[in-house]
Amino acid sequence: MRLVLTWFINAAALFAVPYLMHSVDVTSVTAALIAALILGLVNTLIRPLLLLLTLPVTVLTLGLFIFIVNGFTFWLVAQWVEGFTVTSFWAAVGGALLYSVISWALSSLLLKDADG
């Protein structure tokens, strides 16, 4: 049940990003649900491999390159999902950062009793 609630929280965060950043667009709740699901799968399966491959650059930039990897995964999902668009790569980096902050805030508010 917690996994489904986390999925809905991530979809709500993704649906909120276009209201704060006009270069990201989510056309429907269905598109947000699908994009959140695929984004979760990409972050689980592909992102660790990308972080391993870019480890030297990440160490050289003191961890700042992780923002680029997050933006790339956000942009990649936007290329795959119909109804979820990002206008540019740098918009994807900003959108990924904003999505992470909103998702973290919602998760800390709504899932705080489940951990304790």
Automatic annotation (TrEMBL):
Signal peptide: none annotated. The chain crosses the membrane at residues 26-46, 53-77, 89-111. The keyword Transmembrane helix applies. It comes from the Bacteria. Keywords: Membrane, Transmembrane, Transmembrane helix. This is Phage holin family protein. It comes from Pseudoduganella flava. InterPro entries: Phage_holin_4_2.
